[in-house]
Design a protein that fits this description.
Elements lengths: L8 H22 L5 H25 L9 H16 L1 H5 L12 H19 L1 H5 L3 H24 L19 H17 L5 H17 L3 H16 L6 H21 L5 H14 L6 H17 L3 H6 L10 H8 L1 H21 L1 H4 L2 H12 L9 H24 L1
């Protein structure tokens, strides 16, 4: 006798959200596999689908903006305007033949996706009937899984993996981006989720070890900033527990690398170099390269009053989000970006008690990432900031509804 199973529409609607979360974790790995282009299509389709479903839900129910969200709309508008200023020059480059981060269409699309993902995650529960916390937990657990399987893949790579060791790090993706992704997961586990002390210690230890194994100066600096923040600000976990696990994780990775220095010669050198850079005992070659990229392009931008004021578009190559805005959207766009950061940071700090600081620390992680990465081009970074923003807005909504 045949059995018929009813398809749960809500469950199907949740699927693309979980696919997007998988790309938050594994997007760096995607670049290092032979079927990268197919995965890219899947990623973009998943984002497009959740954006479409969210838009349909919003407009079919009538577009209403609560009074307490108007300030957030204004803050978001400053960032959007900063990006919008460069759109024309991005599609129609002022200077031909420049090395670029990607295609003009891709650059603009990714910037717009940040705003779409904020709304999509904010509306997740009403659209899918699922709990946003389950989405956050899925991200944290998947990040832990990635950290745990990295050594296995590094030493015994599947046949479809390509030259992932070119970075000279103990990682299989994009080291700096992956390190920051692990720290986003740490922030969510420490400031959003209600884990027991034992469970948090286990999860956070894996995430911090995963970060340190990437051996990135940005990761080290962000960990140092988080340690200082943990001393000052409250969290859902005891300060002593978090600082202890960070210390033990650092000691473990340090011992691992230096015990097998013959096998990790390049990694040990990088580890020493990045640690010295944090304390100012050694100059950062990578930051010098980024500064040189910026200065070469600034010569072009400053040649003309209009390009200096409005930028030369996003069809450029710099590995620093601040430099990218200064060049792509000029003095005006860069000023708006700084205003956005200040207003967004101030708002997240003023509402610290509502979301326990998850947005504040996520923004801090994002900003530190932006010193060595074009953060609004990398899905795990702008996507996780979008998720943190949505979590914050949900908490704000619940607070005003109760009062």
């Amino acid at each position: 006798m045949l059995k018929y199973y009813r398809i749960d529409t809500k469950m199907l609607l949740r699927l693309p959200y979980f696919i997007v979360i998988l790309f938050f974790v594994f997007d760096g790995v995607r670049d290092n596999v032979s079927f990268s282009s197919q995965l890219t299509v899947l990623r973009e389709l998943a984002i497009l689908l959740i954006s479409f479903v969210t838009a349909y839900s919003i407009f079919s129910g009538g577009l209403k903006v609560k009074a307490y969200f108007k300030s957030y709309l204004f803050i978001s508008f400053t960032l959007f305007l900063s990006m919008f200023i460069s759109y024309y020059a991005t599609m129609f480059p002022v200077f031909e033949g420049l090395r670029t981060v990607s295609t003009p269409f891709s650059i603009i699309t990714k910037q717009i996706q940040f705003f779409l993902l904020i709304v999509a995650f904010y509306k997740y529960e009403s659209v899918t009937g699922g709990e946003i916390e389950r989405l956050v937990l899925f991200f944290i657990y998947t990040a832990c899984l990635y950290a745990l399987i990295t050594p296995l893949i590094y030493f015994y790579p599947p046949p479809f993996f390509e030259d992932y060791k070119s970075w000279g790090r103990f990682g299989v993706g994009y080291p700096t981006m992956d390190a920051q992704m692990f720290l986003f997961a740490f922030v969510f586990s420490a400031f959003y989720c209600n884990f027991s002390k034992a469970k948090f210690f286990l999860i956070a230890s894996v995430l911090v070890v995963g970060t340190l194994l990437q051996v990135t100066g940005t990761g080290f600096a962000t960990i140092a900033a988080l340690v200082l923040s943990l001393i000052i600000f409250p969290s859902k976990q005891p300060r002593s527990l978090m600082i202890t696990l960070i210390f033990l994780a650092t000691l473990f990775v340090f011992s691992l690398y230096f015990s097998y220095a013959d096998k990790f010669e390049n990694v040990v050198y990088l580890f020493q170099s990045k640690a010295l850079q944090i304390f100012g005992a050694e100059e950062s070659i990578s930051l010098d390269i980024r500064q040189e990229q910026f200065e070469q392009l600034m010569v072009l931008a400053k040649n003309d009053f209009v390009t200096n004021l409005f930028g030369i578009g996003g069809s450029i190559y710099v590995e620093n989000q601040f430099s990218f805005f200064r060049l792509s959207s000029g003095v005006i766009g860069f000023s708006l970006f700084i205003i956005w950061m200040f207003l967004f940071g101030s708002r997240s700090f003023s509402k610290f008690q509502l979301d326990n600081g998850v947005l504040f620390f996520s923004l801090m992680t994002f900003v530190l990432s932006s010193y060595s990465l074009v953060s609004f081009y990398l899905l795990p970074l702008y996507g996780l900031l979008a998720l943190a923003t949505a979590l914050h807005l949900i908490k704000v909504k619940h607070y005003y509804e109760k009062n």
